[in-house]
């Protein structure tokens, strides 16, 4: 191998030396002897015309032929100096036989750095650039060959995926329309049952009232006797309740304040206890708060009134403090000032952290962690996060819902129309693939596709009920009434499941799965990547998150494809302290597996990841690569193969 | 819900408090810094009435070539009052018009403590320029009962000590017009150290910090008057106008004095007399009538300076006769001694020369460091570095230095690397070096108090840290958390520190690595005013209050010395510092700290850098783009266009900001920023020549207009435009979507638009149309600017590239200019290894001659040629130029003023004269 590398190099070095020798004797500016140096093959004709007059390519000037490549820039478009560095913005072509040709900025010519593997960009003799094209070319060709192999396989995979996707979509569309028509029927049945139920209930009510009337009369005498006493009691109770209510309503705003802070200081160790205590209600409160937050203009207007001196960061925080802490921003400002002036109360370490946090933008709690100088008690509870709590609750709730097959993920669990943040949070911790297996319990009764007779069964049942029950029978037949209620409850539950299934399907099918639906399969998948202490989870069409231990940060919700389906964009992630809302760009490239390879954060809270996938293995690109390889093979210096 | 109420309530309150803390995290925290009123010495000095000083001079004599005297006070009226001991007064005279006046307690009278004199600032060689006074004359100034003593200063100048009332001043011999005076208003006050008496409460408290002040009050204050001055300038560092505005007097709103106290100010505002990162107590007065004078007080304690608006002393009813265009100032310092310097000028360049003859000339920078620097907090890892580096190449944008901020270290332990992010730092630096590029890493003075950190262990065991008031190692809080600070006042510790930069000690460093000193005010997050307590103790029992403003200077010095040692004395250091003090110019560059991405801060960068230049710190710049916040694209482009003319040109950004490398804003904006950077690279030969001028004369690279046009009153308060050298006038565009700019072009000669060559009349204001492509910049008629028009990856590859000379003819068809060249990195220029050419164009002939003294012996040579000579203001027509002595002809044609830059009228161009830049030759237009 080595033998045939060395020989051409030797020739080349000699050649370069020879050229530069001539250059030196010819003039001080060390011109190359080759008047056509740096000219791309497609331009050769332009330069090789025999005329003594050379025209700048942009037509702006006519020159003597001797002014071409004379190391002095004459043409504004740099076309007279393809082989020297005289014109800024010019381009130098190196042939790089054995490798790929290269078009360099002319600023690279004779700058002492070897850019072309054939060394042709450095001819003034100051540096020697060995010809490395054959070696480099071989490496490049091998790489290209591998790439082509990948593409070939990838193109096939992609085709399969597209086929599958088309089938699946058709199936889902069919299911959807079927569900829709079934929904209509079921709706009717439920309505009928409801009417009947209401009739029964009316009858029951009537019975009850009658009974009550009798009862009333019977008791009246007794009551008369006790009247005085009970009145006193009642008043006492009322007062008590009022007190309770007051306490409660005072709690409310505080509650929401706290929730908001969880959003901001997502690592605050104090969250946990409160979070647990509040259990379900937290979700609701959080929910409303965040939706308030979602319209940032409110806050901004408020700040405009507050005075200009404060920087945008203050505003940001004010937005939280102002909106949620107390309705009057004045008060918030006042409190803020109080605290700002009150640094005296802080320990020296707290003060240090506080001041440091101005520059770092980290909350001081986080900083501690980084500095890791001090261990604090809350550290362990810190690991457990609110999301966890939600997750458990949610899983319990989820198991009541049904799902029958791999094709359906847990979409039906979320209300697809309601895109609020709270719901999305639940998502974080119950990943689709997990719920696939867990939620199989009893969706079978509505997932009709395999067994269409269920609807008929219900219809039959309803008919039977309606026929069997005598409406105006008094007293009401208890068992009949219970039967109807049960049927009604079951049917309406089914209806709502069906409706949620419909809307989730509709929601799914609305998505842009790419020009050939090649991204369809991404809908049910999440991709994970571990970088240092973080796990990144990308769920296309849904959301992306960063997990550290048990804490989850949402990097973004699905936004769209960009850059002709070569980039996926997740935006509107969790707000960054002092920064923008988090976002993630996923660059797609051809690969045989769906795999996230690199996650990076080039700017604060703006993430970038790479995802290789067969979906990007395009046939046109394969052809391009094959052509490139052919070209490289052609460009190989003669004789190498023989050697 | 009910059971939840009680346990959550306190938690909620806690969280509420916490959030409010965080919400206070932003914007300038005015209340964290002391005002004059909260600073007893300042408040006291400010409230003194004119002529309250009763000092008078006695025992006037010549001693050791200086005029000496005792300053006494009348005996106290009641025996309770302190008996004031006489103060020692010394006036010495130095060559070139420098007068030094020292006043201190008399050591022979047993003061409780020796007051601090700042060491290692005044050049050792300055002493050798002292004139040994032999005698003094005595005269009686009109109306005085007592005599005055008069000594010679320089041709036409005398210094006068007026005995009673005590006053000292410099005057012109002819006509006896005063130039500068001290204590003309009798505000002199010197709090002598005394033994603490029972019942004395010397403690001072501010924001929960207590300063024990074991030595009690020791402040000094006095008034200084600048005669025939229309404006005063200097005393950096403040973000405010260039011409200093009165801080007291009729019509002045309640203002703070200009404060000199090195502070790390978070999000400083753009118009305030508050102290920032560095302090130079040097003020210049300039007026049309006489010229320029300067006053410098070498004192490192906190200083406050009032500029007194005319009529400030009206209440006292006593007006000095020459109150015409006089400007009075009040200087107040917390400690130290009076060690002051009077500079007589009379020209602006004379004053800066006089000042730098005392504090040192600006160091000659490495050529690469005068090119473009790319910084960000933070370039995260090696891959990031590689990406950014290659993107510059991809977009054909040159840059010379890539910077790494604090996150590159292992837990903010300087001299270490985060090996996860930077596993192969040497390899990374070598890769950059292969493209002629350099790297800078940050090294701050706070050392992490971590037993496993070798530097901390060593500093602790050697007792090298600054001590707190009780004598323990001072423990403050900074980036690494709990930190201590090496006592840089001690030369031994500086020497120890400088060894840490050797390639062996600084693991992962290479010869291509240079240093950035940040946080050296010093910044202490949990200290009073975010700095070190004033009662902390330094080497020799010096209190921090006495040297505070010089701490960063010593740190900068030690680091810079470290790089010199690393390079075996052969490699010029490059160290950027944030804190500074007089003399910092000898050790490296500074920048204006953590500015903000807004238009006002773009504008204020100009007066800030001009002020730094005027006070010796010529190698300075502001963060291009603004450190905090995200600049709008237009602002970023304008900042590049302006920053390209800063002496120190670096893009930098806070880690919360979006990426803002020049190629991230669309093709058009990339082009605009590339063009701005290219302009700087093309002008590097000119800039480097100016750095050499600064290195030999102290005259700054970036200058106020009045430095070149000292008698043009219209320039005196102009701080939107500035000169780069004597040839280039630049004005920033400081507003959004500007359509027009009013640019004042001074002087009787014309100006040529730098980009188009269009000629503009001097001595008038032009309303110019503004395009996005450039900010207004003009070449002054009568000058020659050397350029290199080939853009490379970095300045390193430009070494052998040919030159372009741009000759801008004046009304008599003449012009001149200079070009300085050396190896760009070593100290051999000090031995004469350089080329310094003088180009003169007159009578249609350009002559190149050497400015090197004892030329003939060539220690440095260059093979570079001049490939193009452009002559602006010449009639077209000539076809050839004759080059002698080679007797060759070069063609003359009409060519572009700049290659690749839009269409502009073609200009007369001598094509390929290819004369060696190092040689003597002439080129005559035929």
From TrEMBL, chain A:
Residues 325-334 have a biased composition (Polar residues). Residues 204-449 are annotated as: Disordered. The keyword Manganese does not apply. SUPFAM superfamilies: Mannose 6-phosphate receptor domain. Pfam families: PRKCSH-like, PRKCSH_1. Residues 204-247, 255-270, 300-321, 367-393 have a biased composition (Basic and acidic residues). Keywords: Disulfide bond, Endoplasmic reticulum, Signal. One of its GO terms (biological process) is N-glycan processing. GO terms for cellular component: glucosidase II complex. Residues 524-619 form the MRH domain. Residues 411-426 have a biased composition (Acidic residues). This is Glucosidase 2 subunit beta. The lineage of its organism: Eukaryota, Viridiplantae, Streptophyta, Embryophyta, Tracheophyta.
Automatic annotation (TrEMBL), chain B:
Pfam families: Gal_mutarotas_2, Glyco_hydro_31_2nd, Glyco_hydro_31_3rd. Belongs to the glycosyl hydrolase 31 family. Residues 89-306 form the Glycoside hydrolase family 31 N-terminal domain. PROSITE patterns: GLYCOSYL_HYDROL_F31_1. SUPFAM superfamilies: (Trans)glycosidases, Galactose mutarotase-like, Glycosyl hydrolase domain. This is Probable glucan 1,3-alpha-glucosidase. It comes from Vitis rotundifolia (Muscadine grape). Residues 362-690 form the Glycoside hydrolase family 31 TIM barrel domain. GO terms for cellular component: endoplasmic reticulum.
């Amino acid at each position: 191998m080595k033998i045939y590398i060395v020989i051409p190099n030797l020739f080349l070095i000699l050649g370069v030396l020879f050229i530069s020798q001539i250059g030196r004797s010819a003039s001080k500016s060390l011109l190359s002897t080759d008047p056509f140096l740096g000219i791309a093959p497609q331009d050769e004709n332009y330069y090789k015309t025999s005329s003594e007059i050379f025209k700048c390519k942009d037509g702006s000037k006519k020159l003597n032929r001797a002014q071409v490549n004379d190391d002095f820039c004459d043409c504004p478009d740099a076309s007279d100096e393809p082989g020297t560095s005289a014109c800024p913005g010019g381009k130098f072509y190196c042939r790089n036989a054995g490798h790929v040709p290269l078009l360099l900025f002319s600023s690279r010519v004779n700058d002492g750095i070897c850019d072309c593997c054939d060394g042709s960009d450095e001819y003034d003799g100051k540096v020697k650039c060995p010809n490395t094209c054959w070696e480099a070319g071989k490496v490049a060709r091998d790489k290209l060959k591998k790439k082509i192999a990948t593409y070939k396989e990838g193109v096939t995979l992609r085709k399969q995926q597209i086929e599958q996707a088309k089938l699946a979509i058709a199936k889902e569309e069919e299911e959807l329309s079927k569900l829709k028509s079934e929904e209509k029927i079921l709706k009717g049945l439920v309505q009928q049952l409801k009417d009947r139920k209401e009739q029964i209930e009316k009858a029951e009510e009537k019975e009850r009232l009658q009974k009550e009337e009798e009862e009333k009369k019977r008791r009246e005498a007794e009551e008369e006797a006790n009247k005085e006493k009970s009145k006193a009691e009642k008043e006492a109770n009322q007062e008590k309740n009022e007190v309770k209510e007051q306490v409660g309503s005072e709690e409310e705003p505080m509650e929401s304040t706290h929730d908001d802070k969880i959003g901001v200081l997502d690592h605050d160790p104090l969250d946990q206890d409160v979070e647990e205590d509040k259990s379900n209600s937290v979700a609701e409160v959080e929910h409303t708060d965040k939706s308030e937050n979602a319209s940032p203009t409110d806050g901004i207007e408020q700040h405009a009134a507050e005075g200009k001196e404060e920087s945008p960061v203050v505003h940001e925080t004010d937005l939280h403090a102002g909106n949620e802490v107390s309705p009057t921003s004045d008060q918030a400002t006042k409190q803020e000032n109080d605290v700002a002036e009150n640094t005296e109360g802080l320990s020296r370490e707290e003060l240090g952290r506080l001041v440091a946090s101005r520059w770092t933008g980290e909350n001081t709690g986080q900083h501690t962690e980084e500095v890791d100088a001090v261990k604090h008690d809350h550290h362990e509870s810190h690991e457990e996060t609110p999301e966890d709590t939600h997750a458990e609750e949610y899983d319990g709730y989820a198991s009541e819902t049904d799902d029958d097959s791999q094709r359906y993920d847990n979409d039906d669990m979320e209300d697809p129309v309601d895109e609020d943040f709270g719901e999305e949070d639940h998502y974080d911790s119950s990943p689709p693939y997990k719920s696939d297996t867990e939620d199989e319990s009893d969706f079978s009764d509505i997932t009709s596709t395999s067994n269409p007779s269920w609807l008929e069964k219900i219809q039959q049942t309803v008919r039977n009920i309606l026929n069997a029950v005598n409406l105006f029978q008094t007293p009401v037949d208890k068992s009949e009434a219970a039967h109807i209620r049960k049927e009604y409850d079951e049917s309406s539950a089914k209806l709502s499941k069906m409706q949620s299934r419909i809307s989730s399907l509709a929601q799914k099918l609305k998505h842009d799965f790419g020009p050939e639906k090649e991204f369809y399969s991404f809908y049910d998948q999440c991709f994970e990547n571990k970088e240092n202490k973080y796990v990144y989870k990308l769920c296309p069409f849904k959301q992306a998150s960063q997990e550290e231990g048990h804490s989850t940060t949402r990097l973004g919700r699905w936004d769209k494809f960009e850059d002709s389906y070569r980039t996926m964009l997740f935006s509107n992630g969790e707000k960054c302290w002092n920064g923008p809302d988090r976002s993630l760009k996923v660059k797609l490239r051809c690969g045989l597996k769906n795999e996230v390879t690199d996650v990076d954060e080039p700017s604060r809270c703006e993430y970038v990841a790479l995802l290789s996938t067969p979906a990007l293995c395009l046939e046109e690109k394969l052809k391009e690569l094959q052509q490139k390889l052919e070209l490289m093979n052609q460009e190989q210096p003669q004789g190498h193969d023989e050697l | 819900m009910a059971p939840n109420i009680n346990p959550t309530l306190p938690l909620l309150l806690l969280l509420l408090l916490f959030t409010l803390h965080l919400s206070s995290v932003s914007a300038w925290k005015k209340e964290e810094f002391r005002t004059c009123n909260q600073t007893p010495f300042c408040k006291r000095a400010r409230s003194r009435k004119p002529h309250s000083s009763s000092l008078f001079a006695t025992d006037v004599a010549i001693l050791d070539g200086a005029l000496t005297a005792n300053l006494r006070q009348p005996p106290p009226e009641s025996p309770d009052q302190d008996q004031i001991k006489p103060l020692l007064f010394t006036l010495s005279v130095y060559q070139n018009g420098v007068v030094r006046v020292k006043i201190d307690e008399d050591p022979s009278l047993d003061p409780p403590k020796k007051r601090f004199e700042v060491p290692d600032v005044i050049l050792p060689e300055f002493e050798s320029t002292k004139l040994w006074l032999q005698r003094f004359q005595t005269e009686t100034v009109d109306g005085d009962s007592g005599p005055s003593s008069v000594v010679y200063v320089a041709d036409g100048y005398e210094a006068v000590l007026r005995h009673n009332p005590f006053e000292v001043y410099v005057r012109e011999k002819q006509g006896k017009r005063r130039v500068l005076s001290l204590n003309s208003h009798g505000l002199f006050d010197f709090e002598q150290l005394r033994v603490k008496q029972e019942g004395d409460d010397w403690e001072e408290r501010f924001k929960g910090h207590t300063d024990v002040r074991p030595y009690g009050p020791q402040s000094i204050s006095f008034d200084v008057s600048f005669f025939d001055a229309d404006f005063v300038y200097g005393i950096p560092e403040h973000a405010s106008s260039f011409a200093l505005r009165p801080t007291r007097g009729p019509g002045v709103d309640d203002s703070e004095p200009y404060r000199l106290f090195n502070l790390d100010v978070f999000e400083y505002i753009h118009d305030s007399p508050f102290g920032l990162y560095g302090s130079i107590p040097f003020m210049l007065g300039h007026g049309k009538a006489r010229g320029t004078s300067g006053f410098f007080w070498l004192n490192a304690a906190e200083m406050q300076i009032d500029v007194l608006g005319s009529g400030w002393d009206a209440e006292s009813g006593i007006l000095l006769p020459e109150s015409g265009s006089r400007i009075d100032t009040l200087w107040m310092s917390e400690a130290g001694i009076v060690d002051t310097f009077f500079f007589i000028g009379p020209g602006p360049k004379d004053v800066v020369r006089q000042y730098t003859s005392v504090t040192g000339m600006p160091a000659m920078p490495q050529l690469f460091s005068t090119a473009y620097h790319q910084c960000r907090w933070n370039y995260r890892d090696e891959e990031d570095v590689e990406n950014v580096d290659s993107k510059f190449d991809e977009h054909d944008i040159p840059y010379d230095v890539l910077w790494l901020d604090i996150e590159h270290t292992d837990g903010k332990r300087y001299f270490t690397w985060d090996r996860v992010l930077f596993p192969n730092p040497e390899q990374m630096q070598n890769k950059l070096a292969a493209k002629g590029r350099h790297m800078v890493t940050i090294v701050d003075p706070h050392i992490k108090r971590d037993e496993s950190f070798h530097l901390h262990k060593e500093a602790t065991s050697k007792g090298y840290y600054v001590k707190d008031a009780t004598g323990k190692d001072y423990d403050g809080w900074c980036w690494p958390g709990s930190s201590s600070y090496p006592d840089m006042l001690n030369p031994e510790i500086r020497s120890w520190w400088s060894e840490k930069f050797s390639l062996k000690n600084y693991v992962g460093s290479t010869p291509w690595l240079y240093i950035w000193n940040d946080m050296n005010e010093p910044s202490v997050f949990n200290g009073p005013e975010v700095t070190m307590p004033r009662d902390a103790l330094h080497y020799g029992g010096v209190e921090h209050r006495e040297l505070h403003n010089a701490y960063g200077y010593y740190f900068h010095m030690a680091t810079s010395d470290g790089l010199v040692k690393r390079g075996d004395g052969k490699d010029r250091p490059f160290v950027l510092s944030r804190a500074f003090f007089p003399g910092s110019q000898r050790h490296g560059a500074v920048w204006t700290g953590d500015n903000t991405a807004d238009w006002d801060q773009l504008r204020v960068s100009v007066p800030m850098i001009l002020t730094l230049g005027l006070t010796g710190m010529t190698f300075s710049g502001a963060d291009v783009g603004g450190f905090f916040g995200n600049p709008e694209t237009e602002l970023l482009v304008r900042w590049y266009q302006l920053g390209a003319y800063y002496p120190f040109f670096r893009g930098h950004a806070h880690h919360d900001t979006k990426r803002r490398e020049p190629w991230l804003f669309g093709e058009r904006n990339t082009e605009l920023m590339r063009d701005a950077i290219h302009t700087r690279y093309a002008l590097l030969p000119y800039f480097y020549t100016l750095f050499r001028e600064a290195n030999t004369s102290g005259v700054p690279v970036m200058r106020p207009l009045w430095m070149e046009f000292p008698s043009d009153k219209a320039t005196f308060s102009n701080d939107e435009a500035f000169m780069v050298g004597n040839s280039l006038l630049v004005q920033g565009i400081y507003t959004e979507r500007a359509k027009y700019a009013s640019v004042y072009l001074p002087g009787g000669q014309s100006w040529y638009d730098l980009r188009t060559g269009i000629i503009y009349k001097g001595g008038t204001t032009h309303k110019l149309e503004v395009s996005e492509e450039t900010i207004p910049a003009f070449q002054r008629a009568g000058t020659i600017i050397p350029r290199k028009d080939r853009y490379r990856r970095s300045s390193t590859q430009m070494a052998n590239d040919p030159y372009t000379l741009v000759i801008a003819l004046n009304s008599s068809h003449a012009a001149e200019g200079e070009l300085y060249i050396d190896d760009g990195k070593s100290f051999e220029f000090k031995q004469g290894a350089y080329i310094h050419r003088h180009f003169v164009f007159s009578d249609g002939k350009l002559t190149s001659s050497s400015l090197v003294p004892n030329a003939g012996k060539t220690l440095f040579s260059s093979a570079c040629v001049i490939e193009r000579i452009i002559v602006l203001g010449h009639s077209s027509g000539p076809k050839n130029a004759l080059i002698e002595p080679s007797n060759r002809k070069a063609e003359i044609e009409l060519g572009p003023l700049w290659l690749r830059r839009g269409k502009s009228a073609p200009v007369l161009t001598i094509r390929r004269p290819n004369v060696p830049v190092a040689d003597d030759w002439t080129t005559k237009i035929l």
